[in-house]
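Protein in question kept underneath.
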Amino acid sequence: MRKISLWLFILAFTVCAARAQDAATQQQIDQLNGKLQDLLDAQAAQDKRIGTLEKSISDLQDKLSQPAAADSASADDLKKLAAQVQEIDKKRQDDNDLILKQIANFGKGGGGSPASHRSSPAVSTNTPDATATGPQKGYDYTIAANDTVSGIAKAYRAQGVKVTTAQILGANPGLNPNSLVVGKKIFIPDPNAK
C-alpha cells in the first residue's frame, strides 16, 4: 500500500507540476499575444502614415508636372525679351559711339566750355508730357558729356530763353539731374512761347 500511495503521491505531484507548467505556458502565450497585438497596431499606424506620405508625394508630383502661370515664360515672351535686349544693346552701342566721337572732338578742340558745342536750338511743339493746356513750345536738346541741368539752363538763358532748372526737370519726368545720360534727348520748355 505504501507503494501505491507513493505512486499516487508521485502522480499527484506530476499533475500539479504539469498544471503549473501549463499556467506558465499560458501566461507566456498571453504575453506573446499582447506583444503581437501591439506590433499589429504599430504596423497599422505606419501603414496609415505611409498612405498619407504617398498622397503628399503624388500631390507634389502633380504640382510639378503642371506649369505655374506666374513662374514660367512662353516662347513669345522670350522672343519679345530677346528683341528688347537687342534694342537696348543697340542703344548702348550708339551711346558708346557718341561718347567716343565727343572724346575725339574734345581731343581735337582742346575741350572748350560746355556751352560752346551747342548750336542754335530747334523749336519743337512736341513734348513727351504735354500738359492739360496743350503742347508746349520749346527745344529738343541732346545731352553732351560734362553737361549739368543748371549748365544747360544757363546756356539757354544766354541765348534768350528764360528757362529754369526746375522747368527743365518738370518737362522731363524721370530725368535724374545727378546722372545725365550722354546722347539722350531732353525737352527744354520755352516759358516765353505760348
Observations:
- The chain has four helices and three strands.
- The CA atoms of residues 167 and 185 lie 16 Å apart.
- Residues 111-120, 122-133 have pLDDT under 50 and may be disordered.
- The first helix runs from residue 2 to 65.
